[in-house]
Amino acid sequence: MSRVILFNKPFGVLSQFTDARSPSARPTLSAFIDVPGVYPAGRLDRDSEGLLVLTDDGKLQARIADPKHKQAKTYLVQIEGAPSDRDLQPLRDGVTLKDGPTRPALLRLIDPPALWARDPPVRFRKSVPDSWVEITLHEGRNRQVRRMTAHIGFPTLRLVRWQIGAWSVADIPPGTWAAV
Questions:
Q1: CA separation (Å) from 113 to 153, 159, 167?
Q2: Is the bond preceding residue 112 a cis peptide, omega within 30 degrees?
Q3: Do residues 133 and 88 touch, judged by C-beta distance below 8 A?
Q4: How many distinct structural domains can be found in the chain?
Q5: Which pLDDT belongs to residue 23?
Q6: Residues in the chain with pLDDT < 50?
């Protein structure tokens, strides 16, 4: 029976167990998870938060991480500015980034979600509004959501991976994990 762990990765934590570049300066998964033999299925940038799946099952790890399996990943994204539906349409159609075209994204404007406080908090500017969007991708390139929102002129301020397939971080506080 394979082990599966759902971890709510806090902002600033690396999605790996060791940091070869700076062993004591940056927090890693080892500060939060003391379960032998599990490894992250994919990555989540240090400046992103939310769901990270860890498992000891190599096939499951590949199904989650490899874009050819088209595993749905849903993100709650705070962006700078107030886009219209028309502004967001290019992401629904797919945009061309430096590493090629993206697959179409499922995307909708949402009310600000009831999330945990981030440390450090997202910068607030009175003169620049912000908005929240829910984005579901079926691929997973490096910093893809951030590059996509910047491409259409609405930079990402906060990015929380909320769901991978049927797994969600909804009931898991930041810095904690649950076995499924």
A1: 22, 12, 18
A2: no
A3: yes
A4: 2
A5: 65
A6: none
What is the C-alpha separation between 174 and 169, in angstroms, rounded?
Answer: 9
Which member of 45, 56, 57, 87 is catalytic? 45
Is 47 a known active-site residue? no
| Digit-coded pLDDT (tens) for 15-64 | 999 888 876 688 999 999 999 999 999 889 999 999 999 999 999 888 88
Beta-ladder partners of 133: 77, 109
Query: By three-state DSSP, how is residue 108 classified?
Result: strand
Measured CA distances, 90 to 20, 38, 83, 95, 148 (Å): 39, 38, 12, 6, 9
Whether residues 89 and 106 share a domain: the answer is: yes
**Dihedral, 52, 55, 57, 60 alpha carbons, nearest 10:** -20
Q: How far apart are CA 17 and CA 12, in angstroms?
A: 14
> Which residue in the block uniquely carries the two structure tokens 């996509």?
148
78 and 159, same structural domain? yes
The single-letter code of the amino acid at 159 is L
> Which residues 6+ apart lie within 8 Å of 32 measured at CB?
7, 13, 175, 176, 177
pTM exceeding the 0.85 threshold for the entire prediction:
yes
Domain of residue 31: give its range: 4-66+170-179
CA dist., res. 118 & res. 127, Å (int):
21
CATH of the domain at 22: 3.30.70.580
